[in-house]
Amino acid sequence: MTNLLEVKGLIRRFGGLTAVSEVSFDVRKAEIFGIIGPNGAGKTTLFNVIAGHFPPSAGSVHFEGEDISGHSSDEIGRRGIARTFQAVHAFQQQSTAENLRRAEVIARRHNPLHYFTHRSASVAADLQDVARFIGLDKLLDAPAGSLSYGLQKILGYGMALMAAPKLLLMDEPAAGLNPSEKLEAGALIRRLRDERGITVLLVEHDMPLVMGVCDRILVINQGKPIALGTPDSVKADSAVIEAYLGEDYEFA
Asked: Which of 52, 108, 119, 185 lies 20 to 30 Å from 207, alpha-carbon distance?
């Protein structure tokens, strides 16, 4: 299987603090790949380096075989990488349609040629198409602020899809959701891969969601990788149990 993303020996320091230390992994095309670990483990920093918000102190990030280490988030977006955020980022006074339209304008501004090329493909990001896909096509006229928190999170997924990404970085997609919304989010993440062919890299604390949707999982602790493998192998790993899950953790 072809690797879409390759992270090699990644290090990120902030002054005398090493937040990410010698992290290496690959993400394959059409894979759902998870990154988990305790609070303060370095997950968000790792995510932000990949997304172009911080340059690496050492090591490299390759996307489709090209070195994107230290490129800006805009440059990385032009290559086909989009992201969602843990917090809701919708314009509260604007309608669902206007939020999607704004995301479409940003996608065009970043790279018109790339955007319009992808509009003709099966994964083309069209406002109506995306709205139907995320289940908000009946709420296009509703102000984003009138939507439930869960639906606003889903709208954030849709806004990222307007860029027709090849790789979608999802920062805690289940954060703040109730149990039924988490199930819906997990189903939507699987559909991103199965129906749209989008590769997904996610950071998440909700273990049932992670174990239910991910093909492979990287576990980091104190900035260092401690396990990498399938959900079954990771949840049985003694180092992961000791550092993160605990002996009594149940994957209900």
From this structure: 52
- Residue 100 is part of a domain; what is its CATH number? 3.40.50.300
Whether residue 121 lies inside any domain: the answer is: yes
Which distant-in-sequence residues (6+ apart) come within 8 Å of 248 by Cβ?
A: none
The tens digit of pLDDT for each residue in 208-238 reads 999 999 999 999 999 999 999 999 999 899 9
Which of these, 61, 88, 97, lies nearest to 76 by C-alpha position?
61
245 domain residue, yes or no: no
Residue 132 lies in a domain: yes
Convert 154-183 into a string of H (helix), E (strand) and C (coil): HHHHHHHHCCCCCEEEEECCCCCCCHHHHH
Q: Note whether 81 and 169 are within 8 A (CB).
A: yes
Domain assignment present for residue 138? The answer is: yes
Spatial contact of 189 and 213, defined as CB atoms under 8 Å apart: yes
Counted domains in the chain: 1
Report the C-alpha gap between 46 and 99 in whole angstroms: 28
Alpha carbons 243 and 247: distance in angstroms, whole number? 10
Residue range 14-70, pLDDT digits in tens: 998 999 999 999 999 999 999 999 888 889 899 999 999 999 999 999 999 999 998
Q: What is the pTM of this model?
A: 0.88
- Residue 139 is part of which domain span? 81-165
